[in-house]
Amino acid sequence: MTLVLKLGRLISAFVFTALMAATTAHAQSCEPQKVAAKYPAYAGKTVTIAATPTYPPYTFSDPTDLDHLTGLEAEVIESVLNCAGLKSRYELGAWSAILPTILSGSADVAVGNISYSAERAEKVNFIVFMRNGQSVVVAKGNPKSIKTGMDLCGKSATTTMGGSSALAIDRQSKACVAAGKPPINFQNAIDLESAYRQLSNERVDFVMDGTVSALSRVAKSPMIGIAYSVTTDVVAGVVVGKGNDQMTKIVYDGLKQMEAKGTLKALMLKYGLPENLMVPVEIRK
């Protein structure tokens, strides 16, 4: 009897595991033909994506076809929406206009390395899947000899206002003052294209940028280099308007499916994001 009971338990455990695996696989499968049943609020509608065409490698105009948006997050969100059986269009503008576009209701989702913060999460939902690093970009040869955060004290800097890079500059500037050193002279830029032009024109000493974006730009320009980089705990991902639970579920389901299949990791590696910047897909409200 003991042997029979043990066999019965093993069989039950096997069946339970198999059922769970089947359920998970089903939940993570693409079923575009079932869009009306799974996501009725969006059936037959075109999803509007807020993005900027000037933020490589996340979202940028394809050099061979300037009317086509490409990049890591462009491929990610298009894959997610295709998986759900939804059509989409882009609402393009400056990076600083992305969140306002979502908040105004003019777009359903937003992409562009938008970092999570508790303050932002009061107004929008995040579906995060990557971590941010920060890099200090300087003129080639690092003429100001910037090697650490304290070397930034008294220097002039720029980046896009409101992003994680601007917050990093603000934190370092406060650390400078606390140490009895002059603060960083921050000059706001409408987007990173403008920020890098200020650096090229010697109007600022450095640009603070996300590490992956910085590496992409440095690889294309012989006139700039990275002084130093740090890995942060700041996470980023796709943004959806607060209260739009159905679109939040669409994005989450699609990203989990990509995560399970390995296509999310493959895309991140394709666009130069190292594996240590990947984080498990999760909703943060």
How would you sum up this structure, described in words?
With 285 residues, the protein is α/β, with parallel strands linked by helices. It has nine helices and twelve strands. The strands form two sheets. Strands 1, 5, 6, 7, 8, 9, 10, 11 and 12 form a nine-stranded mixed beta sheet that branches. Helix 3 (72-84) crosses helix 8. The protein is elongated, with a radius of gyration of 22 Å. The protein starts with a helix and ends with a strand. Mean pLDDT is 89; it is low at 1-27.
Short description:
38% of the residues lie in helices and 31% in strands. With 285 residues, the protein is of the alpha/beta class.
What separation lies between the terminal Cα atoms? Answer: 52 Å
Listing every helix as H and every strand as E from the N terminus to the C terminus, the arrangement reads HHEEEEHEHEEEHEHEHEHHE
Catalogue the unreliable spans: 1-27
| Total beta-strand segments | 12
Helix vs. strand class: alpha/beta
Spatial extent as radius of gyration? 22 Å
Q: Determine the mean pLDDT.
A: 89
Q: Can you tell me the overall shape?
A: elongated
Question: What are the main properties of this structure?
Answer:
alpha/beta; 285 residues; single chain; 3-stranded antiparallel sheet; 12 strands; 9 helices; disordered N terminus
